[in-house]
Amino acid sequence: MIILPAIDLRDGKCVRLFQGDFNQETVFSEQPEEMALKWQSQGAEYLHLVDLDGARAGSPQNIFTIKHILDEVQIPVELGGGIRTMQNIEDMLEVGVARVILGSVAVRDPELVREACEAFGERVVVGIDAKDGIVAVDGWGVSGDIRAEELACRMGDVGVRTIIYTDISRDGTLSGVNAEACAELARKADVQVIASGGVASLEDIRALKVHAKEGVAGVIVGKAIYTGALDLSEAIALAARED
Q1: Which of 2, 4, 121, 222 has the fewest Cβ atoms within 10 angstroms?
Q2: How far apart are CA 153 and CA 170, in angstroms?
Q3: Gap between the Cα atoms of 18 and 85, Å rounded
Q4: Please, are residues 124 and 100 in contact by the beta-carbon 8 Å criterion?
Q5: Is 202 helix (H, G, I), strand (E, B) or coil?
Q6: Which residue has the higher pLDDT, 219 or 138?
Q7: pTM for this structure?
Q8: Which residues are catalytic?
Q9: Residue 141 pLDDT > 70, yes or no?
Q10: Which of 50, 65, 163 minimizes the C-alpha distance to 106?
Q11: 139 pLDDT more than 60
Q12: 168-192: pLDDT as tens digits
């Protein structure tokens, strides 16, 4: 199971939001590339970037900062936030992003997701953000009027092999990851699931590892590593250990 440190970008800074609320923001660094290098130095094998401004605007916004991070690190980077057209996808892959994360467009235009999967294969990932099991879109501000499990199954049908599942109600709260929901999503949609939201300790990593054979392939860690509640190196070692 892989651990992906999260770097959320807003106005060119590395920030964390509480439950996706733009009014509850903490700035952790004004130089996100330094955070990227820090996590790489602690053993991270993959970075998870989110363009928060892009999620709100509907198209990537922090491109200069994203390019700067890509120039600094040697590990692959995935990117989400405002990627909603084939041109957006192509542009982000061309600048060096290893894979793109499609969010709102997965609800509104599943045919575009199919086209993207046919063109770029496993470099296309879908992010499903949900609260109480209902998908949220447009930077978490709007209900997508579909259950997470149903959307995951639809995405599996159009060729998506990896889904990032974020429980919004837990994101940024350090209240514990929703391991059971992630495992259920993986089983029903027959896809690999990367968990996100609420990770607080090594216990969350252990809870997810139980479901590794069911398709829980990784976990995104954010606030816990920024506040020191979770040691990234220890989490990576635990995730990689064969029990």
Answers
A1: 121
A2: 23
A3: 28
A4: yes
A5: helix
A6: 219
A7: 0.93
A8: 8, 129
A9: no
A10: 163
A11: no
A12: 878 777 788 999 999 999 999 999 9
Count the alpha carbons within 13 Å of 28 in the hemisphere toward its beta carbon.
21
Average pLDDT, the chain: 92
Tell me the C-alpha distance between 185 and 219, whole Å.
14
The residue type found at 134 is I
How many other C-beta atoms are found inside a 10 Å radius of the C-beta of residue 158? 18
User: Domain residues of the chain, as ranges?
Assistant: 2-240
Residue 60 φ then ψ, to 5°: -55, 140
What sign does the dihedral 38-39-43-49 (CA atoms) show?
A: negative
Does residue 22 have a pLDDT over 90?
no
Instruction: Tell me the pairing of strands 13-18 and 21-29.
Output: antiparallel
- As given in the structure block, the two tokens for residue 232 are 């990234």
Quick one: which of 203, 205, 199 has its CA closest to 225?
A: 199
Contact 75, 46 (CB under 8 A): yes
Residues with Cβ within 8 Å of residue 133, at least 6 apart in sequence: 147, 148, 149, 181
238 burial class (0-12, 13-18, 19+ CB within 10 angstroms)? middle
- Using CB atoms within 10 Å of the CB of residue 167, give its burial: 0 to 12 exposed, 13 to 18 middle, 19+ buried: buried
CATH for 2-240 is 3.20.20.70
Residue 155 near residue 106 (C-beta atoms within 8 A): yes
